Automatic annotation (TrEMBL):
The lineage of its organism: Eukaryota, Sar, Alveolata, Dinophyceae, Peridiniales. It comes from Zooxanthella nutricula. This is S1 motif domain-containing protein. PROSITE patterns: S1 (PS50126). It holds the Pfam family S1. Residues 233-271 are annotated as: Disordered.
Length: 271
């Protein structure tokens, strides 16, 4: 980031922010933050002292206060975007800003990464991220705190190939909502069931709807009944039964799931 003095050249009512002319090829995009000196957009033409960082090749973000710095190691040289590829990581990162408009992190790249996350984060939080997408046209990138499997290049997994309890998250799409939970397509031969108590209501306070993109973990499988149970919460190693044992437990303690009713309502939240 670099400190610059500029003038407000446009007010953005829809965002509650402003564009600031800081002498670069494009104005810097400024948004108010809870910790910011400015809680409302300044007046048109007023002077602002801001800290600037690139979010894309032709997009600059402006901050009223010095963003949190990532502790440098080694030479401190930043990665060039063109040298990075999806799937690489983990990279050390620090949250620069987090609001309703998104979360940006500094992961020692020449630009800030847009973080896809389903848990609340605060400015200054440190984490590890994986690169999941690079757009060479806009010069932007997307990162995730989870190592996500690439569905575009990988064929659907069979249940026999699927391992439960791994520290590998699966990106999925909600395909159906029933009284028993949400059925999610996560690039497996069958859709997994995300039960009401396995939905993170902090990340989804209004519940799930068909088409929502979620990150899930495989918690258990029943190979005979061809059933997979999912959770938004990463399973603990001590609570990871084998597929065969899980199947035996279900045969002895649970009945088969009833035929789900059709409908596109919301998945029930946890109590």
């Amino acid at each position: 980031t670099e400190r610059r003095t500029g003038r407000v050249c446009a007010i953005l009512p829809g965002y509650g922010g402003a564009l600031v002319d800081v002498g670069l090829e494009v104005p810097a995009f400024w948004l108010p933050e809870p910790h910011s000196t400015y809680q409302v957009a300044p007046e048109l033409g007023s002077a602002m002292e801001v800290f600037c960082a690139r979010h894309a090749r032709y997009e600059v973000r402006a901050f009223s206060e010095q963003p949190p710095a990532l502790l440098q190691r080694g030479t401190g040289a930043r990665f060039r975007l063109e040298s990075l590829h999806p799937g690489e990581g983990p990279f050390r990162a620090v949250v620069v800003t987090s609001s309703a408009h998104g979360t940006l992190v500094d992961f020692n790249c020449e630009i800030l990464g847009e973080l896809r996350t389903e848990r609340p984060l605060a400015r200054g939080d440190e984490l590890r991220v994986y690169l999941i997408a690079v757009d060479p046209l806009t010069g932007s990138c997307v990162v995730s705190a989870n190592k996500v499997q690439d569905k575009s290049s990988a064929p659907p997994l069979s249940l026999e190939e699927l391992n439960q309890g791994e520290e590998v998250a699966h990106r999925g799409i909600v395909k159906r909502i029933t009284d028993h939970g949400a059925f999610v397509d996560f690039n497996c031969e069958v859709h997994g069931l995300l039960g009401p108590f396995d939905i993170d209501i902090d990340a989804w306070p209004d519940g799930l709807l068909i088409g929502h993109e979620v990150t899930v973990y495989v918690t258990s499988m029943d190979l005979e009944k061809r059933l997979v149970r999912l959770s938004m919460f990463q399973p603990r190693p001590s609570q990871q039964p084998s597929a065969s044992r899980a199947s035996q437990q279900r045969r002895s303690t649970r009945r088969a799931l009833p035929e789900p009713r059709s409908g596109q309502g919301r998945a029930r939240q946890r109590a």
